[in-house]
Write a structure and sequence with these properties.
By secondary structure, this protein is mainly beta. Helix content is 12%, strand content 38%. The strands form two sheets. Strands 6-7-8-9-4-3-10 form a seven-stranded mixed beta sheet, with helices on one face. A four-stranded mixed beta sheet has the order 1-2-5-11, with no helix packed on it.
């Protein structure tokens, strides 16, 4: 199943190739950044993701806490369509469900998550298991 979405102004777009028949899980992270941005994240280890950036100058990356993931933020409209974690030379990602064009019947009810007890090694192993491991970030003509 092919899902598309992105930020409000169109500078950051996402194309998510989701395994057929798989319901899209929704995880509401309990960290302060995600609570304040209403981040509702999804991933599947067999999915693939392409993030297209029209203007590199209008892409902001934000790291906080353990500094193990970059939140991709549009500097124009402020939306956060994805987060990427580089682990052992490979990118892993989650997508903000709120930025996808997704029929409500295709997604599971939101589940709250809290990763405060994880150390960095546990966090990275979890991401390698559960996040999207086929990630491409492409830059447009003005990128």
């Amino acid at each position: 199943m092919n899902l598309v979405g992105g930020c409000h102004c169109g500078n950051l777009s996402v194309a998510l190739d989701w395994p057929d028949g798989a319901v899209v899980p929704v995880r509401c992270c309990g960290c302060s950044f995600c609570r304040r941005h209403a981040g509702s994240w999804t991933s599947h280890p067999r999915a693939s993701l392409t993030v297209r950036v029209r203007s590199r100058a209008d892409l902001s990356r934000y790291r906080f806490g353990t500094e193990t993931a970059d939140f991709l933020i549009c500097a124009r409209c402020g939306l956060v369509p994805a987060a990427v974690s580089r682990i052992d030379g490979r990118d892993y990602a989650v997508v903000n469900v709120r930025t996808l064009e997704l029929d409500p019947a295709q997604r599971a009810p939101p589940q709250s998550t809290d990763f405060d007890g994880e150390d960095i090694a546990q966090r990275l192993k979890r991401r390698q298991r559960n996040w999207i491991g086929d990630v491409r970030i492409e830059f447009g003509a003005t990128g």
